[in-house]
Write a structure and sequence with these properties.
By secondary structure, this protein is α/β, with parallel strands linked by helices. It has 14 helices and 12 strands. Among the domains are: 62 residues; 263 residues, Type I PLP-dependent aspartate aminotransferase-like (Major domain) (Aspartate Aminotransferase, domain 2, 3-Layer(aba) Sandwich), CATH 3.40.640. Strands 2-8-7-6-5-3-4 form a 7-stranded mixed beta sheet, with helices on both faces. The protein binds pyridoxal-5'-phosphate.
């Protein structure tokens, strides 16, 4: 097959995928899919015709994240300008380590980082695109580790005494980072939250004092701006003050909530972020830029440069004349894909105002879903909310709610009509749709609520699932 013909066929797949489908997913248990899928790697190549049928196979069994019933993780839908950026970045296949090897890519990434730093309030700041919010949290903690023990970079770091503080509702990536950085899970203190899922600053102070009395070294606080389950925003100003008094690095995990900074209505949720030392912010979550597109921003760029320094051994890559421009000097990666172009193109397309409208629309839709839930006697909101996470459950008296809501979720997913997350708030199992998908509408939310109630009623009446 000729390249032109091949590209036409690929584009026709793109078009029909964008046209949408009835289902979020054709749910097939993994044991069945494993039996039917053709995964063999041939000795002799099968040619481009076969690539087309492989693409069809892949798309057929993929989750359609642009479907209005897709409200499961903290992202969804398709931003078409960003999609074009993804294709073009792959087409050019530039690597981001040096200006020489990615001239325009370097400048776009710098422009984005500069703008995002300004939005955060880091006037002299800098940063890098990373492999995700998890990685951004780890880099923040790595900078904190450097501040606590600058010599550790050369002679190794003894993390046994260093303690980090996070909210009890923080993302699990902080624990992974503790593992990677040699701090250990036990040295990540989960600070009690208030009833709305926000870190309690009085408890943070207590925990810091307790650690000090035990001879430990508090070195980092990670606050969350937009928690994974409830979308809660920790009180950044209060936490910043505690960090400043105790000389502790202050990192803000704004992977999910960072986009609130576009909106004059919601910007105040992150008041105090300018007092942080570092921030991570995912454009691949609420902004809908295709995975992966995530930023790490830092107030004092020299610390990022130091923790990423490689002793200038890479003479084959880095040359003196572009030292201040080469992004490989402020990244943990060597070869690095261009994640900047898709964000750059979508930002140019939408502008700050477009992002603000999109975000406000998502929160309005979440408000509407909350109203639908509150006006149905069989449903119950399970948390207050300020963001687009909606935590609720089906409820009737004298029933094991956790079991019931787990079953509702299973039937929703297996029907292929909806995907929402099942999470826990304390001991309660809840359903957590998140609005971060442009395909979601008021009508699709009305249908969703009817479907949850219909399935809940069915389970209560003992009617078995069709799936
Ligand atoms: C609050 C928060 N921080 C960090 C992360 C990790 O982000 P990523 O998936 O980009 O690694 C998530 C992911 O959902 C999150 O909700």
């Amino acid at each position: 097959m000729e390249t032109d013909e091949f590209l036409k066929l690929v584009l026709s797949r793109v078009r029909s995928h964008l046209d949408g489908s009835d289902k979020v997913v054709d749910f097939i248990p993994q044991s069945s899919l494993r039996r039917t899928a053709d995964l063999s790697l041939p000795l002799e190549g099968l040619g481009l015709e076969n690539v087309i049928s492989d693409i069809d196979q892949y798309l057929r069994y993929s989750v359609r994240t642009n479907h209005p019933g897709f409200m499961n993780p903290l992202w969804g839908g398709l931003n078409i300008a960003a999609f074009a950026g993804e294709i073009i970045a792959n087409l050019s296949n530039n690597s981001m380590y040096t200006y020489e090897l990615s001239p325009f890519g370097t400048l776009t990434e710098q422009a984005l980082i500069k703008r995002m730093c300004e939005m955060v309030g880091f006037s002299e700041g800098n940063g890098t695109l990373t492999t995700g919010g998890s990685n951004g949290n780890m880099i923040g903690m790595m900078c904190a580790r450097y501040q606590a023990d600058p010599l550790g970079q050369q002679r190794g770091f003894d993390g046994a005494k260093h303690v980090c503080y996070v909210s009890a509702e923080s993302h699990y990536s902080v624990l992974m980072a503790a593992n990677v950085l040699g701090i250990g899970f036990e040295n990540v203190i989960k600070v009690t939250c208030d009833k709305d899922g926000r870190m309690r600053s009085d408890k943070l102070s207590e925990e810091i004092n307790r650690s000090k009395n035990n001879g430990q070294i508090p070195f980092c606080v990670v606050a969350t701006a937009g928690t994974t389950v409830r979308g809660s925003f920790d009180p950044l100003k209060e936490i910043a003050e505690i960090c400043s008094t105790n000389d502790i690095w202050f990192h803000v995990d704004a992977a999910w909530g960072g986009s609130c900074m576009f909106s004059s209505k919601y910007r105040s949720l992150m008041d105090g972020v300018e007092l942080a030392d570092s921030v991570c912010w995912d454009a691949h979550k609420m902004m809908g830029v295709p995975l992966i597109c995530s930023t790490f921003l830092i107030k004092r760029p020299e610390i990022l440069r130091t923790i990423c320094s490689h002793g200038d051994v890479a003479h084959y890559l880095f040359h003196g004349e572009t030292e201040d421009v080469d992004l490989g000097r402020i990244s943990l990666q060597c070869g690095r894909r261009n994640d900047a172009l898709k964000l750059f193109l979508s930002w140019r397309e939408k502008g700050d105002a477009g992002w603000a409208r999109m975000i406000e629309h998502y929160v309005e839709l979440a408000d509407y879903l909350q109203t639908l839930i509150e006006s149905n006697s069989k449903l119950q909101m399970m948390s207050s909310r300020v963001w687009s996470n909606v935590c609720f459950r089906y409820t009737i008296e004298d029933i094991n709610h956790n079991d019931l809501n787990s079953q509702i979720r299973e039937r929703l997913v297996k029907s292929g009509n909806y995907m929402v997350s099942k999470s826990n708030i304390h001991d309660d199992v809840i359903l957590r749709p998140v609005i971060a998908n442009p395909a979601v509408t008021r009508e699709s939310l009305e249908q969703f609520v009817l479907e949850v109630v219909r399935i809940g009623d069915e389970i209560v009446r003992g009617i078995p699932s069709d799936y």
